[in-house]
Input
Amino acid sequence: MAKKLFWLFMLVGVEFAIAGALLAAAYAAGLLPVWLAALLLAALLVVLVIVAKRLSDRLLFPLVDMAKDLDELEKNAPYPELLPFIETLRRQQVQKDENLRQRQEFSANVSHELKTPLTSISGYAEMIETGIAKEEDVKEFAGKIHAEAGRLIDLIRDIIKISELDEAEPEGGEEMQPLDILSIAQDTAGMLAFNAERAEVSISVSGCYAQVKSRRELLEELIYNLCDNAIRYNRPGGWVRVTVAKAAAGVLLTVADNGIGIPAEHQERIFERFYRADKSRSKASGGTGLGLAIVKHIVLKHGAELKLQSAEGQGTEISVLFPPAA
Output
């Protein structure tokens, strides 16, 4: 239909161009007086405006009618040429709806996660304040308040981090540049050495020098969360191994452990916000439930590929394939 209207516009334009040319030729040859030539030219322009208006209405009115029912755009499409455009709009709307759902779900989960440590802190503090807690229990309660406060700080930190990753790059922010991921992995493992020792888990880094185009804080955050998760969901005598290798498609970072592993039914959702495969162990280890979600966001920001391999009771291996730095 749109093509037919296009050719109709072309035909009308050609016809009016010919009529105008004939009118000009007749005037030049002295066949028409000035007043008659001016009158015919004015009439020609009026007819041209009327025809253009009617053709435009014929083209646009179906689009207006289509827009009245946004839920049935594909069914009401007046022109086949509009179907790719309608499909793009539909995908964008689905993405917007999904983003809204995720934000609402995230807000509800944040409220719940913040409420839990605050309730504990308030309860223990009230027992101390009112004298219900025995003198010998005050130290224990104070320790629990301190632990819950630390959990709250970690949670708020991760919430802020994932919110920042959700947003576009801030203006004036540090640009990505080639960085040696092996040295960053070694530094990050050093930060976690105390936690690993306390959990009786060994942590090691090996591999070759390899550059990844990134920002240091993003790589540190990614490696820290992967290693921290591997330590938390391990057992005494376990190990965490970080390796960096060059691959044909880029740079491969792998964090493997011989911990408790992830059941197969949970593996598809493990990178969702606040999703925990083992809720009781997560609570005991003090995890926020956002570590792997932050990892996924950072991976997407780099255009990298994320891969998970895990077997319950045997351990987990998470690998990130970064594109070449150059």
